[in-house]
Amino acid sequence: MKTLTLKYLPSLAFFYRYLRYRLALLLVVSILVGLLDGLGLAMFLPLLKFVADSGTQTTNESMGNLAFLLDGIRALGLQLTLTVVLLTMLVFFTLKGIAKWLESYLNVIYQQYFIRKVRVENIDALTHYSYQAFVTADAGAIQNTLSTEVERVVQAYRSYSQMLQQGIMILTYAGLAFLANPEFALLVLVGGVLSNFLFSILYKKTKQLSQLYVKSSHRFQGLLIQKVAFFKYLKATGRIQAYAQNLKEMVYGIEDSVRKMGVLDSIMAGVREPMMMAIVVATILVQIQLLGGSLSTIILSLLFFYRALSSVTGLQTSYNKFLSFSGSLTNMQHFIADLQQHRAPNGQAAFSGFDRAVQLNNMSFGYQADDLILKDLNFSLHRNETLALVGESGSGKTTLMNILSGLLQPTIGQMRVDGQNASDLDISSYQNRIGYITQEAVIFDDTVFNNVTFWAEKSEANLQRFWDALKKASIAEFVRMQPDAEDARLGNNGINLSGGQKQRISIARELYKEVDFLFMDEATSALDSETERAIQENIEQLKGQYTILIIAHRLSTIKNADRVVVLKQGRIDHVGTYEKLIAQSVSFKRMVELQEV
User: Fold this and answer.
1) Are residues 589 and 582 in contact, defined by beta-carbon separation less than 8 angstroms?
2) CA–CA distances in Å: residue 357 to residues 415, 422, 435
3) d(CA 221, CA 247)
4) What is the pTM of this model?
5) Going by CATH, does the domain composed of 10-341 fall within 1.20.1560.10?
6) Of residues 407 and 533, which shows the higher confidence score?
7) What residues does 551 pair with on adjacent strands?
């Protein structure tokens, strides 16, 4: 059953995965609404008899198979009077109102439950997404799926649940209509099914437009992200207008897809009811003129079909809306599957602190197994050692740092931390002990305190740790001079700070964390010489207190490193002190000489 549902009803399977029994409960309540409404409508026939002739009572035959309603009233010891008929109708419609309230309430509650589950699952899946998969992923698709597409998936769920409920209502009314007059009901049903084929072409076109909309939105979000990221370059080079024109053309394309879907929806909305009424009229004529049917049971069946007609209209409207969002639903299913498929591997052993060394044993890595970036590396990073990685561009320095930080896993060989295979570690507990400082400092648009403490509670103990971290990073006095001190807002990407101040804030954040490792990926290469020298002095003060790994652009900044590893084409060329390498490594000496020119 599960396999068949996944194959033929993938959307239902997707929604059921989040809602489980809630989806079935919603449908049961919808059945109850339709049934109570139908029973209330059935009482109109006795009422019409009383209106036509106050002395005439409705016979069981005129009610068809719904005569059990009259039998039930009589079984209660009641006479079939006008008052009893009216009160019976009132009871049915009151109960229907209660069921309708419950249905609406559950719709709201379950919709919010669904969107919460989807968003939380996306957040968790992205949190555990493999970095190796992330670097090759489409950033625009990720951004668009996590923001715009989530809302469209909710719209898809809303349309789909309405479609299911309308379908249940149609089946309920159709069942009551069959009880009243099977021949008439069958004719109308056949006509309705045949008319639905006329809409199939429009449905197919709507689905195609929905998929085109999703692709265009992904591309637009990707370009928009890059416009913000590269705003300075685009503005300074005068290319921002050309880039903006490209974005505008994409906006026009997206708007055109939405407009076409709207046109198709309006066409179907306009022809739906006249077509159904034409079917009903033709069926009545066939039933009376050719089949000699009873007008009373036809009228009762017609009442049910009139109600069903609204549900048919609602179902077709909901279905077309669902198709317009179906591209987003398909995209979300693929997105979640991709995140889960590329979940970062994680062990169970908690990492409580660094004691001895990180070792690489015959370690090689490549994004593709037949195209290795790092090849057969063997070396150790010792506790409280300062180790520098140098080499030409493309030699594998950043990739090696990503391996050591647990972002990437070795393709061949092992990384061991204090003798334990890194693949057995709970990698997040290991990474919690790493301070990571990049060339482009990460500054959040928030206060200094929140940037450094990562939104910790502003307690006395945390404030003391905050100021200690700032002092170690030589940024405490600057912060104290701000009008709002630790509550000073830093602006978008630290727009209110200089490059050196940004890096010091970044260093303070990592020191607040109480780390074992400080990883610095060309952390000072984008700064002027004076600022770089000042930050280098800060780092020198931390030497021996932390295990420091540095990727250096300017080789003069690593003179005091305990060891320097020279990488060449993904292999270790030499390892030694700065002075030793100048004497022994031709490639390292040449790099130093070129920078001193």
Assistant:
1) yes
2) 10, 12, 17
3) 9
4) 0.71
5) yes
6) 407
7) 389, 521
Predicted confidence (pLDDT) per residue in 98-131, tens digit: 998 998 899 889 988 998 898 888 888 888 888 8
Neighbour order of strands in the sheet with 412-417: 374-382, 357-365, 412-417, 420-421
Among 570, 519, 576, 553, residue whose Cα is nearest residue 410: 570
The class (CATH top level) of 357-596 is alpha beta
d(CA 336, CA 329): 11
Q: Which residues 6+ apart lie within 8 Å of 396 measured at CB? A: 373, 374, 567, 569, 570
CA distances from 163 to 168, 176, 241, 314, 450 (A): 9, 20, 45, 7, 47
Residue 258 C-alpha from the chain's centroid: 22
Indicate the SS3 state at residue 554: coil
Q: Are 549 and 517 in contact (CB under 8 A)?
A: yes
Tokens of 103: 């249905």
Domains 10-341 and 357-596 agree in fold: no
Name residues whose C-beta falls within 8 Å of residue 176's C-beta, 6 or more positions apart in sequence.
35, 38, 39, 42, 66, 304
> Distance of CA 420 to CAs 406, 431, 573, Å?
14, 15, 27
How far out from the chain centre does Cα 471 lie? 40
SS3 521: strand
Which tokens go with 69?
């309603």
For the chain, report the end-to-end CA distance as a whole number of angstroms: 74
Quick check: helix, strand or coil at residue 209? helix
The 10s digit of each residue's pLDDT in 531-544 is 667 667 767 777 88
- Where are the domains positioned within the chain? 10-341, 357-596
Q: Which residues, in sequence order, are CB contacts of 1 under 8 Å at separation 6+?
A: none
Residues 80-95 pLDDT 10s: 777 887 888 888 889 9
